[in-house]
Amino acid sequence: MSYNHNSRLLLIIDFKFVLTKERNEPVMKNFKKIISAVCLVCVLALALSGCAITKKVTLATVDNEIVSLEDFYQYFEGIKSSMLQEAGIDLSNQESVDNFWDEAEIEGKNALTVARERALNEAVKLIIQNKKAKEMNITLTEEDKKQIDQYKTALVQQNFGSKSAFLEQLKALKTNEASYDKMQSYALVASKLYSEISKGDEYKIDREKAKEALKESERVTAKHILISTVDNETQAPLSDEKKQEAKKLAEETLEKIKNGESYDALMKELSQDPGLATNPEGYTFGKGEMVKPFEEAAFALSENEVSEIVESDFGYHIIKRLPLVVEDTDIDNQIAKMQQEVYDEQVEKWKADFTIDINEKALNKIK
To answer: Less crowded by CB within 10 Å, the N or C end of the chain?
Structure first.
């Protein structure tokens, strides 16, 4: 199990359709990653969404362009899922989920209000980027459109099995195919816009500057022994009996470590982390990139210290914090992050060029 921010299981995804990668990364390659994340949201957010059919509602306008309820829902359930994961809420416990939305506050605002605002903001920003792209004569070619269609077909087959199942999923998420297709087209236009804009000098981030920023940021390197409590194929929680067996194995493993057995040898033998093969030296991450119990435990450790048993939605972890490692890929990712920050600031500035009207009454009714 890979515990970085792109992990399928953690669902800690930044639901921006413009994702920054290395500046020489092909636009379509980047776009495919974006679409994959969107389809993944359609699959995983169903546990939190209802199946009501929504009437036509305009949530906002950007100049003369409408943000529909269906456009909004392209983001909303995924953002809610991400917020719940970041807060360490057990998604299988509906009472905990309901309490979070009813009672939790984020920077003085009700959590549900924050989720609504974030989802609407993402939809608005995507429209703004497309309007700016149009001003710069950045459009989709016929080849772009063909690749979008081909990739959508492949994703439907891979994730849903059939077109009808895909449409049912969209319906359950309170959106539809027309909105989905529009957002995918807008996503690729925005990605092409970023590729053009990021040629500017302000996007040329010095590697040493990025390295220093990494050292100053709150980051840790840690490895873990995972005794899983979810089914590897379906990701459904195991039975209580199986969970007890997993906990017992975790306790026995921790006792062996305390008695002097090699942590690395036990990790190699027992860890059920699918990411172990590609990340044998552990993971380097910052705050907000992991599920909360894992993150809090890792940051609380001293270098080379081993944790007690830490429980998350994915199982029982025995974490070992290591000296911080800064690899070339970490620097590359930091450069991408800094470039994204420059771009985000630019998009915020562009907002001033447009008249944005929000239907607060309709927005506040959304659950």
So the answer is: C
